[in-house]
Amino acid sequence: VTGVQTCALPISLAVAAAVKLADRGAVTAATVALLGAPGRFVAAVLPGAEAVLAVALLAWWSPVPGLLAALALGVFTAVLVRAARRGVPCPCFGVGAAPAPPGVRSVVRNGVLFAGAVLATGSPVGADPVVAAVLTVALGGAVVVSSRPRQMRRS
Fold first, then answer.
1. How many Å apart are CA 64 and CA 56, to the nearest integer?
2. In sequence order, what are the beta bridge partners of 92?
3. What is the model's pTM?
4. Residue 155, SS3 per DSSP
5. What are the Cα distances from residue 88, in Å, to 43, 63, 109, 140, 154?
6. Could you tell me if 91 and 31 are in contact, meaning their C-beta atoms sit under 8 angstroms apart?
7. pLDDT (tens digit, 9 = 90+) per residue, 36-48?
8. What is the three-class DSSP state of 111?
9. Which residues on adjacent β-strands are paired with residue 94?
10. pLDDT digits (tens, 9 = 90+) for 118-139
11. Radius of gyration for the alpha carbons in the chain, expressed in angstroms and rounded
12. Among 30, 33, 133, 153, which one has the highest count of C-beta atoms within 10 angstroms of its own C-beta?
């Protein structure tokens, strides 16, 4: 696993946390609009969870952070699909980052990050990128099948 692969996921999580913290009010409003009442709690807790997970991925050589990241990305992808179906923006990387509803590119981005999470579950020495690619394709296929592609917009 190269340095870029090792750092891409934690950097993405750290950036997502930072932009959410920088504009808490707007992110909270957008999250409530997307998730309803639980959105207030999610908006309050998520930036801290993303930051902790980013640090854990870099500092804790164990499969646990990778498994937690894969689980989080599965949930994030489900929320992306929900936002796309509803035609509302997703505050994944802050409110201003994506004023339009998410589309196929957002789901593909999450698939790539998911592959990084899968790689993070193993030892950085000898990690198998083929396994990550297969799991990414499987996740992407499941998302595409369940999201009615005709409703997804390019982002």
1. 9
2. 94
3. 0.69
4. coil
5. 16, 34, 18, 21, 13
6. yes
7. 889 899 999 999 9
8. helix
9. 92
10. 777 766 555 556 665 666 566 5
11. 15
12. 30
